[in-house]
Specification:
Mean pLDDT: 90
Shape: globular
Structural class: mainly beta
Number of domains: 1
Helix content: 10-25%
Distance between the termini: 32 Å
Number of strands: 19
Strand content: over 45%
CATH superfamily: Porin
Number of helices: 6
CATH architecture: Beta Barrel
CATH class: Mainly Beta
Low-confidence stretches: 1-21
Radius of gyration: 23 Å
Order of helices and strands: HEEEEEEHEEEHEEEHHHEEEEEEE
CATH topology: Porin
Oligomer: single chain
Length: about 425
């Protein structure tokens, strides 16, 4: 662990040194800002977003650079580049690039690559400066699924409607599409087992959000709805070695080899390597509430996700078999900004990946309970250090970032995070 700590410190200092002389530009209608962050995590039991099992791993490194320009007419253009290394998967993406014009307070239009409204914090997940915790609630805002939840390409209407003494309502309505995801992405790797997914084609994305700013100062309620119709995934049955490398049991391959002779699964051409396809309609609904009072912020959210469609696995004689899966997540969180430099918080989260109990396995494999405490300290106005600890009960989605945990007998485990961010 000592070497990992040294590596973490060296890389962090190098990143900070590289941007320490950088200055934000905010003049003449032009605004340019950015941030560099590094996250290290440790778990005494399991690999979770990296090699965290009994060692400290520098598992996430991120760089953002964004700019905006507002014309005298009120037209605004903005874009952000996002480069990251997540548990060994590296990518450079155009996070958003939008042209925005507000006709009046009640209606505006955004066109281009826009942020996807999803819950209280989906659109501001990159802004470390506005929250105490190093990470958003782990399964409510899963980092590995960021390609699905960060942005969409298309158009959106937005505005604010006054309700006199009843407060006001902020709304968004959008339509577009989400970028396709390749088979190497952490979210896709984490779902490999008997089947390996080669890629996911996401056609359309649509939905919207409503936020009621209640007449009580600091109190707001939100609802967001996202629909992704006709998501298509293509893949193939894995070899025995591929299944085992994914942390899957390989029982199906062993059964075929027992019945028809050793090597039948891998080499007959009837099983390993044969295609499978799936088409699903995915929807996400989130209810939110947030209350800000003085230095306190309380928030709670409930999310329900549903995937409904058909799947085909010709090797097993399965053609357009109807499938349905659901997930339910909720959390409640309180944070306190004690001083300009120091803040602390606590949340409790619950995730159920099988709310209708259709899975015959023990509940520990389909649920996760997470009690988290965190603290944030500003070394300077631009430099933050954050620490947080999680006491978890449950093993669902341990492989979310492609991590392999073959022996998972103990449902109680801990997860610790240290994060530093330099912004300009």
């Amino acid at each position: 662990m000592t070497n990992k700590l040294r590596n973490y410190s060296a890389l962090t200092l190098a990143a900070l040194a590289a941007v320490s002389s950088a200055q934000a530009i905010d003049a003449g209608g032009i605004a340019i800002h950015g941030a560099v962050s590094a996250t290290a995590a440790y778990s005494g039991d399991y690999d979770y977003y990296g090699d965290t099992s009994d060692s400290l791993d520098l598992d996430v490194k991120e760089i953002t650079l964004n700019g905006a320009y507002r014309f005298d007419s009120g037209l605004r253009i903005a874009a952000q580049l996002y480069a990251y290394d997540l548990a060994g998967y590296k990518d450079l993406t155009l996070d958003f690039a939008t042209v925005d014009y507000s006709f009046n307070e009640m209606i505006g239009l955004r066109v281009g690559r826009n942020k996807l409204p999803q819950g209280l914090y989906g659109e501001v997940q990159d802004l470390d400066q506005i929250r105490v915790f190093a990470s958003l609630p782990l399964n409510f805002y899963p980092r590995a699924a960021r390609p699905l939840s960060a942005g969409y390409n298309g158009a959106g209407l937005y505005g604010t409607l006054g309700l006199a003494k009843a407060g006001s309502v902020d709304y968004q309505i959008f339509f577009g599409w989400v970028d396709n995801i390749d088979g190497d992405a952490p979210y896709v790797r984490g779902n490999n087992g008997l089947l390996q997914i080669d890629g996911i084609d996401i056609d359309q994305a649509m939905g919207g959000s409503l936020v009621w700013n209640a007449p009580v100062e600091g109190l707001k309620f939100g609802y967001t709805y996202n629909l992704f119709p006709d998501i298509k995934s293509n893949g193939h049955l894995q070899t025995t070695a591929g299944m085992l490398a994914s942390g899957y049991s390989g029982n199906e391959a062993a059964g075929i080899d027992f019945l028809y002779g050793a090597g039948t699964w891998d080499y007959s051409g009837m099983f390993a390597g044969t295609p499978n396809t799936a088409t699903v309609d995915a929807s996400v609904q989130i209810l939110s509430v947030e209350y800000t009072h003085d230095k306190w912020i309380g928030a709670a959210e409930y999310k329900k996700s549903k995937n409904e469609g058909v799947t085909s696995v010709p090797a097993f004689g399965i053609s357009n078999q109807v499938t349905l899966s659901e997930e339910e997540h909720w959390y409640a969180q309180v944070t306190y900004q004690a001083t300009d430099k120091f803040g602390a918080g606590v949340y409790y989260a619950h995730s159920d990946f099988d709310p209708k109990n259709t899975d015959a396995r023990d509940d520990k494999y389909t649920t996760v309970k997470d009690l988290a405490v965190g603290a944030s300290y500003a070394l300077t106005s631009n430099w933050l250090i954050k620490v947080e600890g999680h006491a978890l009960d449950g093993l669902a989605k341990l492989n979310l970032a492609g991590d392999v945990n073959r022996n998972t007998p103990d449902s109680s485990w801990n997860y610790f995070v240290v994060k530093t961010t330099f912004s300009f």
